[in-house]
Design brief:
Layout: E1 8-9, E2 14-16, E3 23-25, H1 28-38, H2 43-54, H3 58-74
Antiparallel strand pairs: 1-2, 2-3
Helix pairs in contact: 1-2, 2-3
């Protein structure tokens, strides 16, 4: 099971890891990305959503998602 699916996430971007007790704050974009990662959506599908939602090129959204995933790994959340 992915650790991201175990995170408690609220609509304001507050993220709580019940396994460690750590909490985090994510932006509106990060919230969308994190929720979609947690349910197993592909980076390409997430990039399409982010591109439509925030009117950015899909290539930029895909790069940002890669950066976000790297951050999650460094924090031990994926």
């Amino acid at each position: 099971m992915r650790k991201t699916s175990q995170l408690a996430i609220n609509d304001e971007g507050f993220v709580f890891d019940p396994l460690t007790g750590d909490s985090y704050q994510v932006s509106e974009t990060g919230l969308i990305i994190l929720r979609k990662i947690a349910v197993g959506q592909s980076d390409e599908d997430i990039a399409r959503t982010v591109s439509e939602e925030f009117d950015v090129p899909e290539e930029d959204a895909l790069a940002d998602i890669g950066d976000f995933r790297d951050r999650l790994k460094r924090l031990g959340l994926s």
